[in-house]
Amino acid sequence: MTTMTAFDTARFGTIQFGPEDIVTFEEGLIGLSDLKAFVLIQHKEDSPFRWLQSLDEGNIAFLVVDPAAYTSNYNPEMPESATTALNLSEETPILVYTVCTIPNGNPRGMTLNLAGPVVINAESRRARQVVLEDESCPVRFAVFDDQKSQVA
Amino acid sequence: MRVSTQQQFDFYMSQIEAAHSRYLDAQRQVITGKKFELASEDPGHAHFVISANTIKARTEQLDRNLRGAKDYLSNTEASFDEMNSMVSHAYTLAVNGANSTNDQAARDAMASEISETQRRLVFLANTTGASGQYVFAGQKSDVKPFVETPPTLTFNGDDNPINVEVRPNETMRVNLQGAGTMISTVYATLETLKNDLLSGDVSKISTQDIKAVQDQLAQINAVQGDTGTKLQTVTALSDQNLKRIDDLTKQVSDAQDVDLTQAVINMQSAQTAYQAALQVTSRGQSLSLMDFLR
User: Which of A58, B126, B170, B271 is positioned for an S-S bond with A34, CB 3.0–4.6 A?
Assistant: First the structure.
């Protein structure tokens, strides 16, 4: 029987999770190296959005989304350091999420960070936030066409 | 049971004092807008308010830190966005310069453009933040870090980190690591390209310079990705902190602040009760010996 652990979060109240739900970032997130354990929480049923909720700091959660929901040809080449660290091979099931930024009061201004995707080895639940050197992957990819010209 | 005059007096006085105290308390709540002033008046709520205010002050401090981090990161990002455009243009010039169909006059013009790019690069390398600090100078942030004496660029800063506490007990480096070396290398790469354009060394441009410029572009892209991702994280943390500060402010207000309408009603009731206690006492105390002789 799986042992469930309770954890208090600012956004979701008390959540319950099992060991198999934990996604481990051994190096933390970029800029937040102490945050290593997270769970993915579905935003709403059938939504492509997830919350990457920290298990080290209940107040911190990042909104992420499967980039395939908004971009048709996002298939970046992973740096070798990432494939080695996550032990990825051709057969490894991988989850890729991009962190979203939604400006206050302007949901149509939503951008995705295509330059710093979160890559998860779905088998081992080990993950890494990877910085791509690919010029075609911007830090602020405007999701909605009418906002593209307003994003630097 | 016989009630003595002294007992009666004491009773009246205690009732007046209690009514007066309630009236003053109600008055104080209307005037200050607070349910209590001293922790002893409501220990349970007072403890919560003190804790919440402490957390709020800490969160506000973190938010100020995050604003400082944003200043560094956004200036770094903006500078590197422009450097990317400039070096991309230099790459285009290098490819054109490697084309042997171009004559030397065309290559000289390209070299002149590269010179302009170097001037602009030095300007960006000395970018300052909101407090006038040099963003790429490390901890020597009050010293202009890059001084150009063609054909060399001298770095006078250091590579020490500017660490900002972005959440309790965790710091983030917000200045670019290796900025001095990196920007100097971009400058030197452009210098080499310029000289090879001026000397018409097409072979060296095509075999070495184009690759060197490409490498610098890749480095710049990596800095943009890393800085932009950090900036996104800082922005998300800041948004979450602001929401937390709002929540704490509301919770403190709920625990500490009075409902003013209700407080005024309470004050009027307390006032009426106090006046009634005074009237009853004055009637009771107005009895004289004549009342008993009738």
Answer: B170
Torsion of CA A30, A31, A35, A37, to 10 degrees: -10
Q: If you measure CA to CA, which chain A residue comes closest to B69?
A: A31
Q: Mean pLDDT for each 10-residue chunk of chain B (294 residues)?
A: 73 83 79 74 77 87 94 96 96 93 92 97 96 96 96 96 92 96 98 97 96 96 94 92 86 76 81 84 68 63
Alpha-carbon gap: A115 to the closest alpha carbon of chain B (Å) = 5
Domain extent listing, chain B: 51-251
**Cβ separation B244–A116 shorter than 8 A:** no
Q: DSSP assignment, residue A21?
A: G
| Beta carbons within 8 Å of B13's beta carbon, 6+ residues apart | B281
Q: Which residue has the tokens 């770094």?
A: B76
A77 vs B: CB within 8 A: no
- Is A151 at the interface with chain B, CB within 8 A? no
The ipTM assigned to this model is 0.84
Fold of the domain spanning B51-251: f41 fragment of flagellin, N-terminal domain (1.20.1330)
Residue B54 Cα, gap to closest chain A Cα (Å): 16
Q: What is the pLDDT of residue A61?
A: 94
